[in-house]
Amino acid sequence: MTTLRETIASSGAMGLNDPRTDAVRLAQILLRSAGHEILADGEYGEKTAQAVMAFKAAHGLPANGNIGLQTATLLDAIVPAATPTPPLASVKTAAQW
User: Fold this and answer.
1) pTM
2) Using one digit for the tens of pLDDT, what is the confidence trace for 59-75?
3) Residue 30 CA to chain centroid, in angstroms?
4) Distances (CA, A) of 40 to 31, 71, 90
């Protein structure tokens, strides 16, 4: 899976009305993991821009609505903390039931 930082590094900063729906959706999912109540619909609209501004302000970055390398790096770092993977031993097979 490509990280948000890798996407930004290869194709530039992301901002309002960005057409890269998959990358926008990833950013929205990461913002949701950080506690921002937005839809992960792949559309970089005003609500996504506002969530980005709030996220950046909370992390000491200039509070504009764009996602550059620093913001993408911070957002990518949220994933391990927000989505723990259950250990394989907790999954029972049909034979164990």
Assistant:
1) 0.79
2) 999 999 999 999 999 99
3) 2
4) 9, 18, 29
